[in-house]
Amino acid sequence: MDEHSPLEAEIRRRILAGGPMPVAEYMALCLSDPVHGYYTTHDPFGARGDFITAPEVSQMFGELIGLWVAAVWKQMGAPENVRLIELGPGRGTMMKDALRAVQIVPEFRAAIVVHMVEVSPVLRAQQEKALEGTGVPAFWHSALTEVPKGRAIVFANEFFDALPVNQAVKTERGWHERRIQIDSSGQLAFTIAPEPIPFFQTLLPPALRAPRAGAIFEWRADTAAMELGRRVADERGSALVIDYGHAEIGLGETLQAVDQHAYADPLTFPGSLDLTAHVDFQSLTRAVEAMGATGFGPIDQSQFLRRLGIEHRAATLKAKTARATEIDQALARLIGQNRSAMGELFKVAAFAHPSIGVPPGFET
Ligand code: SAH
After folding, report:
1. Which atom of ligand 1 is nearest to the CA of 156?
2. Highest mean pLDDT: which range of 2-11, 203-212, 327-336
């Protein structure tokens, strides 16, 4: 009998049949294989799960995003019907908190139809539960392309970091695609393609073209970002993307595995560990703008949430509850600048149809 998990057995079969596997193919199988993928089979969130995301840290996060969305809707001319689209909604907490916060803008709430874009059946069931009783109609899709046309506001927290990333390694002979093989001891291990990728360096900014041997460059397919840009441009819409990553294109390996809040080897236990990689906001913005939307930011999450009034919101909540310490801790986690906080590592970018102007929080 095979001692490996069903997904690892499948990955090994593919490597034996087709040769070393590109990192992006490995990541896609690990996260969203329809039967054994991490998101397909797990609810990874929360203090007892593998990691915690901003909407799970505090209700303040989703509430402020809700108020941002309502303000953008007004800038869009307050259309009578608007699709509120969330990419990768996890447990549905951010949408639930956002819908509660926009109760103070009833004409906006009446205009909304919610569209959730989710691949995982486990998480989709949780999202349905989270949105029960909100009184706002909601529909589920497995891709943004499936959401019907119409004026739209899209948002996503920690969605792009879960999309598969490709890697290339610099050697004396050029840039080689990084792949995954079975090594002589029978373990999954990184290797590189024998031949360099032709003209790869011409795709890089000049400053990155001649690094030391062994340097790693990561990139994602632009498909999801381009689809987002097309939606914003065609539907005179807007979008908000929140994720961890870097503002400018750069070198370095950021692919990481997390298991119960601790870092792990990304090649162990495929399908049981969360895999993510930094979002390159420069490349993301270029892809979105190529479709006709205008990009704003990225700015640090700390700056964005402060501009939306998170400190004021925290003070109001503290006055109403006995859990003041908890609120202070959540605030520190969301806007703190130290390494264990999200304030500086996480970035926020907005995109809008050129007619809409500067979205709230991005004024210079
Ligand atoms: N936004 C949530 C969850 C982030 S985790 C939060 O902040 O808590 C990533 C989410 O994206 C999960 O819901 C996962 O199932 C979903 N996801 C991952 N890849 C996807 C894809 N290709 N299409 C749609 N959803 C995807």
Report:
1. 1
2. 327-336
